[in-house]
Amino acid sequence: MKTLSKEEFLKNVNFYLQEMETGKIFVYPTDTIYGLGCDATNSLSIKKIREIKMRNSKPFSIIVPSKEWIKENCVINFLAESWINKLPGRYTLILRLKKFKGVARKELLIGTYTIGIRIPDNWFFTVIEKFGKPFVTTSVNLSGADNMTSLSDIDENIKAKIDYFIDEGSLENSPSKIIDLTDGEKIVRRY
Questions:
Q1: Over the chain (191 residues), what is each successive 10-residue block's mean pLDDT?
Q2: pTM value?
Q3: N or C: which end of the chain has fewer CB within 10 A?
């Protein structure tokens, strides 16, 4: 695992975008907590994240490159549109997919037709905009364990299996608020 500061990462962002393209695994800061992720179209990398987290049955959420991506790939109604207008922010919107070419469906969704969508309100989102593809976003922990708040908290088993850690110090926030918009509006998790 290579540890980078935000400044180091951004100074060489084109190199790291290429690394994302090749399927490397990243730990990165968001507006809530650290995320563990990879290119959401890369089946092998998603399988690796499932192994890292020991999580086989739940789908992962994604950071999308734009609101346009959401509108092109997800079923949007008036209620969903109102939540999309609140992005970027500390929300994960559960939406039904209408297209499956934009993600590695089998590995990412685990048999469902819905997906968690994020546009975090921090600098890492601008990297995903440049990347132009969705990026897996899940908490950096073994399934069911506490969320990691800093590099010193990271489980040694996880540390050995990731390629890059973008260190932004301690992030003491709570995970995003999850709103299921597939059938009305249901708050799945509060801040």
A1: 97 98 97 95 94 87 96 94 97 90 78 91 98 96 84 88 96 92 87 53
A2: 0.93
A3: C
